[in-house]
Amino acid sequence: MQFEPQLTKRFNIENSYTLNVALQHGAYASLPKLFSKKPEEVIEEIKISGLKGRGGAGFPCGMKWSFIPKNSTKPIYLVVNGDEGEPGTFSDRAILSKDPHLLLEGVIAAAYAIQAHVAYIYVRGEFFREIQILNQAVEEAKNSGYLGSKIQGSDFQLEVFIHQGAGAYICGEETGLLESLEGKKGQPRIKPPFPAIQGLFGCPTIVNNVKTLSSVPWIIANGGAAYAAIGTKDSTGTHIFGLSGHVQNGGYWELPFGMPMLEFIETYGRGVKNGKLKAVIPGGSSTPVLTAQECEDLTLSYESMAKHGTFLGTGGAIVINDQTDMPQILKNLTHFYAHESCGQCTPCREGTAWENRLLQKIIQGEATARELDLMVEIAGNMEGKTICALAAACAMPVRSFIKKFRGEFEKYLKPSGVTVGIQL
Amino acid sequence: MTIKIKINDQPLEVPEGINILEAALGNQIPLEHFCYHRYLPVAGNCRTCMVELEGPRGRALTIACNTKVTEGMVIYTNSPGAQTAQKSALEFLLLDHPLDCPICDKAGECKLQDNYMKYGLYDSERMVPRYFKGGKDLSIGEHIILDQERCVLCTRCIRFVDEVTETSELGIIHRGHESTLTTFPGKALDNAYSGNTTDICPVGALTLKEFRFKQRVWFLKKTESICTKCARGCNLWIEQNRETVFRLMPRENPEINRTWICNEGRMSFNEINDHRIVKSQLYGQVDDLGSMVEKIQNILEGVEKEKILGIASPWATLEDNFILRKLFKNRWNLDHLVSLLPPLGESDSILRLPQKYPNGVGLQVLEIPELSKSIIEKLNDRHFEVLLVMENEFWQFASLELQQSLFTIKHIIVLTTHQSDVFQKIEAVFPVRAFAEKYGTLINAMGYLQKINPAINSYPEIVESSIFIARLAQKMKIPGFEFETPVEVFNALSQEQSIFPKIRFHQIPSHGLFIPLDTNGVAPAPFSGHQKVDNVFVRGHQFK
Predict the structure, then answer these.
(1) How many domains does chain A divide into?
(2) CATH code, domain with A39
(3) Do A343 and B48 touch (CB under 8 A)?
(4) B534: confidence class by pLDDT, cuts 50, 70, 90
(5) What is the pLDDT of residues B129-173, one digit of tens each?
(6) ipTM of the shown complex
(7) Can you spell out the DSSP letters for B67-129?
(8) pTM value?
(9) Is the separation of the CB atoms in A235 and A53 below 8 Å?
(10) Which of A105, A373, B30, B491 has the most beta carbons within 10 angstroms of its beta carbon?
């Protein structure tokens, strides 16, 4: 597919993470244009572009920025969410290690738009190499006048700090991240107040994903309308889509929104490995699973995913072939969510572990249909009843796996006479 | 400012700025909750107070504790969606909860039990073996036992030690369903208010060592009373069974003590039961009441007007001091009625005040002065022949010098409640009722007139100090002492003392009556607990 790469343009250049190489290939080129605009104009440009948050929820980025109260007497913070923990997702990591200056350029633009003078980049604890690269990039940018006071001759001032997480999935949730950044136990905060009003250290804060901010420099350089022209009507621009699982060629590729899922798997993943396509988890492990049949008219876009009752999420698709036992995959997933639940809200704390224990019982062949129905009931009782979305992230796979592959679960059940189905 | 809302199609007017939970409970609409506590910050983690709000996109679930009411809000607490959410949250809480209610001290006042009977009533269906965690009887402080598997992780206790006492001894370790309440390494839950964590614990995870396995709560009878351990006058429930007081529990009063009391006050329940004196004593030997009263009457009738010294008490009620004062005023020299106050004690900015007596302001209102230099001079001159002490155990705190000169007085008459070694030196000791056994009023340091009520009647034969003195006065044929109960004394007192509004005893509200005092006495100390509480339905319901 012909298009101009925005996020991955410097990925294949040797030493692209160093400032010199990045500058030779166009890094920080959007800054003069950025500083010629007023902050409100930058926000307006982002609104026109239709850029949505790439962290998973897909919230319109420009709208989020406009929630910052005007004339705030408190300092405003920008926080970059680099706690990439969603299973099946590995594209932020690529940006952090291959083109950190793209992210920093986006950070400068976003900070300028919301008038933040301090930005924190919260990076997943396990990304040791990426943190080294990022630290070096921040150091270089500071020494060359791209960070600090009077950036590139403007009046704008910005300090960037890198914070290494300690390896908790829940710290990828924006308020959990803020708690962790403040030095507390990573537990999501109760909302309202929302971070844009009362975030880091009680001050107005915008939390954005690495990919979201990395998309911003291109929009500043080329205009929001040009960005909106790429992709589909409701899913504008490009995204780094990932493929993992049973494909011949796993990896990540930057593509405009709108490519059919099957074409994506065939062209870039070079087809399904060791069998035929059975299912796809389209956007990180939390999104409801789709059967091969459902994938036929599925495209890589927010609206097509929504039409199929799932989410684009992080854009990291997990491909499952027909040799795979679905209950075993679900067991793996529920174990993950039970382990990563922060333990704050009752439904999630108890529910995730309960699901996992029930599924273990089913797989051991000790359960009847009642356990299977109970799992679906529990999923319903967890979803939408907690402070953050982790409970839903566990409930959605449970429900979709059991709904779409119930037969595979029933194979494990003890023959116990009547099987009672329930309305799904 | 009130606003109009609807709960379950019932139109209501509620104060602006309160949350849905307070609005519902204040209007007697039941709503399940665990982690919400009126005087602690909202945590919103138990997820049991789920309600449905009517919105532009249909009904949406939200937690009632963290949602403020707004004009025209339409709320459902009993819709199928809300009820399913409430029920399922309860089911999750009970999932691995041990069913040791038969040996749990919280049984009978446990929110899990109550809520299950009110909102749960589903069939038990765990389908997997129970998950066990933590220890069952961990001593985490001088007064507190922690049972980790009973804990529902509502974090009320954590918020209490973080926000009220600011001592932060407690925290939750681990994540997910392994989350466990514990103390920080090397720290014990030993602050001066630690007992409150056992009250606010909605289950039996934190229990008080002093109450553990002592009594089933459903046998306890509750009486409204006031703590007598300092001038704050915290509101209490005295809880007794068969004339034994088993515990003192805080009674909510937003202005004075919210729902807290200090450990010192809480542990004073032992004093009500132990070392009481119930028989009159002559130089430490039990003697017949009738003959002793006759003897004392003779002494009092024979003594010269100027030669009797009276000691009133900051521990006694207004009524007791009033009657003693009346007797001195009518019969002897009022200048010779003084009070003795103990030295100042420990205090902090939460509840405890340095004046370790409940009714110092009451003495000021009755204009009974402290022991003055001129009286001490007279004492040293051996001027007095009779000493009449009412409920003032000066031998416990007065200087040795003062004690010596007091004990040189020829006839010493003491009305008191508790046993002591010094009775051998005292001619006549008469037992009187303690604060848990009588009606009476006290004025706290902030100027609240509060009443105490009899919780127990262990010794029906003994009477209150005021009535004892009134009967003595009647025997001495002094007019104006025709009282049978302290209630009658109060009603007379409120007519006589200009500072009181003319009210009768039963008209004093249970949360106290503020009296604007212009005495130069103890400065009113407003509540200074750290968490600011706005817009609470103050008189709506007792918060539990």
Answers:
(1) 3
(2) 3.40.50.11540
(3) no
(4) very low
(5) 999 988 999 999 999 999 999 999 999 999 999 989 999 999 999
(6) 0.91
(7) -B--TT-EEESSSHHHHHHHHHHHHHHHTT----GGG-TTTTS-HHHHHIIIII-PPP---SP
(8) 0.92
(9) no
(10) A105
Asked if B176 reaches chain A (Cβ–Cβ under 8 Å), the answer is: yes
Q: Do A346 and B48 touch (CB under 8 A)?
A: yes
Identify the DSSP state of B344.
P
Tell me: do A307 and A343 sit in the same domain: no
B50 in contact with A at a CB cutoff of 8 Å?
yes
A55: tokens are 């962290």
What's the whole-number mean pLDDT along residues B297-325? 94
Domain boundary residue, one of A273, A302, A321: A321
A/B interface, count of CB pairs below 8 Å: 96
pLDDT at B247 over 50: yes
Which burial class, exposed, middle or buried, applies to B129 when counting CB atoms under 10 A from its CB (0-12, 13-18, 19+)? exposed
Same-domain pairing of A168 and A291: no
A121 & A189 share domain: yes
Q: Tell me, yes or no, whether A6 lies in a domain.
A: no
Interface residue A347 vs chain B (CB under 8 A): yes
B44 near A CB under 8 A: yes
**What CATH number did the domain enclosing A294 receive?**
3.10.20.600
Contact status of A352 with chain B (Cβ, < 8 Å): yes
* Domain identity same for A216 and A117: yes
Q: Which residue do the tokens 């925005």 mark?
A: A6
**What one-letter code names the amino acid at A329?**
I
Is A413 a member of any domain? yes
Of A228, A258, A273, the domain-final residue:
A228
Residue-range definition of the domain harbouring residue A189:
19-228
Does B519 score more than 90 pLDDT?
no
Stretch A376-387: mean pLDDT: 95
Of A185, A190, A342, which has the smallest distance from its Cβ to B44's Cβ?
Answer: A190
- Residue B20: is its pLDDT beyond 80? yes
A28 located within any domain = yes
Closest CB to A346 among B46, B175, B178: B46
Nearest residue of A to residue B51, measured between CA atoms = A385
CA distance B40 to chain A (A): 15
Q: Measure CB to CB from residue B89 to each of A338, A367, A385 and give the nearest one.
A: A385
Q: Judge if A263 and A352 occupy the same domain.
A: no
Q: A417 falls in which pLDDT band (50, 70, 90)?
A: low
Of B84, B89, B125, which is closest to A346 when you measure between CB atoms? B89
Cβ contact A342–B176 (<8 Å): yes
Residue A1 lies in a domain: no
